[in-house]
Specification:
This protein is of the alpha/beta class and 264 residues long. The protein has a domain at 9-91 and 159-259: Rossmann fold, CATH 3.40.50. It is built from eight helices and ten strands. The chain has helices at residues 51-59, 98-102, 104-108, 116-125, 141-153, 171-188, 199-205, 236-253; strands at residues 9-20, 23-35, 40-44, 66-71, 74-75, 83-86, 159-163, 191-195, 208-212, 219-224. A six-stranded mixed β-sheet has the order 6-7-8-3-9-10, sandwiched between helices. A four-stranded antiparallel β-sheet has the order 2-1-4-5. β7 (159-163), α6 (171-188) and β8 form a beta-alpha-beta unit. α4 (116-125) packs across α5. The protein is globular, with a radius of gyration of 19 Å. Residues 257-264 have low confidence and may be disordered.
Length: 264
């Protein structure tokens, strides 16, 4: 597969709210963020702070109440194969084999017959060549998530959106797939936005870490990680940075929203 070129993401003054019981429930409050082509950015924050809402806006599944989301200068108005989304649940179709699940995107675009090699290469990328004809029920959790990654990567997306993709895996499998995800990102060059509740995972993978406040979410702080890869989790620099982020998250959990600084 040809190396993917990452796309630039611009989130400008985005405010989002949902209707709840006749009232508007504010979720995002004037959020602005720029992501450079080929950058891997992690979003962390309290549960329910709007991280998944932001990912859905980037994917084009929802539209912001105010503000704009654009990729390479084009406003995001609907889903597109150039922005692939991977969820916490692999959401594989049980009546399709692994290959059949990976082929969904090309089939939807009417190019399945021309994409056989691309499908094979996507399976090879995630280490599932020998399981191409397996059924989802025969896969472990880690293998199912690999299949979901292959389904996303088969489109050669410039942007990969990751909504807690490793959240349900055991710790050993999670660490293995963190390494695989990092390898894929380094090989393919796509832009990635990762949601995770695991601060260590964010620090292992990301170039920058964006800390969100409680709902309605504002950007509390953007942290440049600045550590060489592969990252030693036992190093003083890593341990200190992790402690700093955890302290910031603890502070957010006890700070009223109107006292949070709006940082862009």
């Amino acid at each position: 597969m040809v190396r993917t070129a990452g796309a630039a993401i611009e989130i400008r003054n985005v405010t989002q709210a949902f209707r709840s019981g006749g009232d508007d429930l504010p979720v995002l409050d004037n959020v602005s963020l720029s992501v450079a082509p080929g950058e891997l950015v992690a979003l962390v924050g309290p549960s329910g702070s709007g991280k998944s809402t932001l990912i859905r806006l980037l994917a084009g599944l929802d539209q912001p109440l105010f503000g704009s989301v654009s990729v390479d200068g084009k406003v995001v108005k609907s889903p597109d194969p150039s922005r692939s989304l991977v969820f916490q649940d692999p959401t594989l179709l049980p009546w399709r084999t692994v290959r059949g699940n990976v082929a969904i995107g090309p089939q939807a675009r009417g190019v399945a017959n021309r994409s056989k090699q691309r499908i094979d290469e996507a399976l090879e990328l995630v280490g599932l060549t020998d399981f191409a004809d397996a059924w989802p029920a025969q896969l472990s959790g880690g293998m199912a998530q690999r299949a979901a990654l292959a389904r996303a990567l088969v489109n050669d997306p410039p942007v990969l959106l990751l909504d807690e993709p490793l959240g349900k895996l055991d710790s050993l499998t999670r660490r293995v797939l963190q390494g695989e995800l990092l390898r894929l990102w380094q090989e393919r060059g796509f832009t990635a936005v990762l949601i995770t509740h695991d601060v260590t995972e964010a620090l292992v993978l990301a170039d920058r870490l964006v800390v969100l406040s409680p709902r309605p979410a504002r950007i509390r702080e953007v942290v440049e990680i600045g550590l060489a890869r592969p990252r030693d989790q036992s190093s003083p620099e890593f341990v200190q940075l992790r402690a700093r982020i955890l302290a910031l998250l603890d502070e957010e959990a006890t700070t009223p929203p109107d006292e949070l600084e709006d940082v862009h």
